[in-house]
Design brief:
heterodimer; A: mainly alpha; 68% helix; B: 116 residues
């Protein structure tokens, strides 16, 4: 990837038409690509929220209720709604490209794309139920 | 060094993306929305603390935090690279992204290790 970016010795300067940094707004599919890449920001945001909750659990009941109170503020609720939507977008795009990223064969026959993507969704439903059952137990 | 690290970074990107896709929606919905809003009964401090003191839960939380952080680092690095075309800052961006993920991972490991 970096190979083409630099001038090669004994080679005339590459001609590269300048591309605007807003190139991804020119087409819907480019914008969808950028949106998909930006879901990672919300993945990181929520990983940090989880870490924050775990740290407060380690510190004690007062710290834990302080963090819970912060999560009830409009700012965090809005961020979490946005994070939820972005992470769902990440999930759908991730599962739908899974068949392209991994080819699974059973007895020499390739598992069809729909079955491979479907197995990811099935695992998602199952894991969500398990997590919900544990956390909602009280 | 970067060349040799690429497969490893790609692998953590893949694992982290899969973990985030499988488990983050339900955790955002519960931990981030339904529990703070009071629309579902949040577990008490004692029961959560009891849950987290189990080694398997701690391993789960470590995996749940660390891999998605590296997923972010890898993806966001290339978003800046492709989107903002900051080719001259490639190394700096990589150091900041993977460095932040590594710090988060270290804090998670330290915290989870110390919970008694």
């Amino acid at each position: 990837m970096s190979a083409g970016r630099h001038d090669t010795p004994h080679h005339p300067k590459w001609y590269r038409p300048p591309i605007s940094i807003w190139w991804w707004l020119k087409k819907r599919s480019y914008a969808a690509f950028m949106l998909r890449e930006l879901t990672s920001v919300f993945v990181a945001f929520f990983a940090i929220v989880l870490l924050w909750q775990v740290r407060s659990l380690a510190e004690g009941p007062e710290a834990y209720s302080r963090v819970m109170a912060r999560l009830q503020t409009p700012l965090f609720l809005a961020l979490d709604v946005l994070a939820f939507l972005m992470i769902l977008f990440h999930m759908v795009t991730w599962f739908n490209v899974a068949p392209a990223a991994m080819v699974v064969r059973v007895r020499g026959k390739r598992i069809p794309d729909w079955a491979l993507a479907g197995s990811h969704y099935a695992a998602w439903v199952l894991l969500s139920i398990v997590v919900a059952a544990i956390l909602l137990r009280g | 060094m970067t060349k040799r690290a690429t497969p490893l970074l790609w692998m953590t990107f893949g694992i982290g993306g899969t973990i985030a896709a499988l488990l983050f929606p339900i955790h955002v919905l519960l931990n981030g929305l339904l529990f703070p809003l009071g629309w579902a009964a949040a577990p008490s401090y004692e029961s959560l603390h009891g849950l987290v003191s189990h080694p398997l839960t701690r391993l789960y939380l470590f995996v749940l935090i660390a891999f998605p952080l590296f997923h972010w680092a890898h993806r966001f690095r290339y978003t800046l690279y492709d989107g903002l075309q900051l080719y001259h800052l490639t190394t700096l961006i990589a150091v900041i992204c993977y460095g932040a993920a590594a710090i988060g991972t270290a804090v998670a490991a330290y915290t989870l290790w110390g919970i008694s």
